[in-house]
Design a protein that fits this description.
By secondary structure, the chain is of the alpha+beta class. It contains twelve helices and twelve strands.
Amino acid sequence: MRNSDTKLKTMGPQSARLVTTLHEQNKPLFRLKEVRQILQLDHVASSNFVKKLVERGIVTRLKPGLFILVPLEMGKESEYTGNPLIVAREIMNGTDYYLSHATALEIHGMVTQPQLVVYVTALKSHRPVKTKGMEFQFIHTRKYLFFGLIDHWVTKQEKVKVSDPERTIVDGLKNPEYCGGLTEVAKGLWIRHHDINKTRLIRYAVQTGIGAVIRRLGFLFELYKIGTVEDREILRSQLSETYVRLDPLLPSEGKYLRKWRLQLNVSSEELLSVVRT
């Protein structure tokens, strides 16, 4: 007899009914409303019922009101959390979001180190969530900046929203603190520079209307010899007289580069060295 069959037989009839129904509906992640609908229980009874399932290792509580079935073949496993990308989607509970920054860099193969935090950009503010060794950080943005998104299929049945490679670079240049710093964003740009859509990347940068993004992108294009002279001139035409730091996370030091209105607090040598390794 398979482990999954054994596990179902050791459950009570209500537990087995809930687990079987959730599997049939392809809802390994679920909320109390699903429990109420399937078992016809009120809020208190469904809450107490799921609490017992958590204690028995049949279900893992990810956050208040959000649970995941432990796969039947795993037996009792209180630390099972499922795929963090799908969990991030479910935390958003149908509201607008996309996976971004370091998480998107990893999805698009633009980093060399595994990421320990899942970054989610959303229209609504959301507190960080830490659960069973997973951490989710939420970055608030405005509706007009919700563009450049694609579907990423995590499994054959499950997909999530993620920034496309070009939008990922733009987000990283705007907020490098969510990517491990400007050098990590630069490395990601270099890793994909042969197949990234330069025209789209420039358009996105200009569309944000954020001068720091345009300055940093133009400088990296020139440093890494990406795109054409005309590409860089499009970016230069958008500049004002204001100077910004190349890496906003580092102190205000280093020489000023008038061409891109940047204070170079990261040296060109350091940025070139990260793409040689």
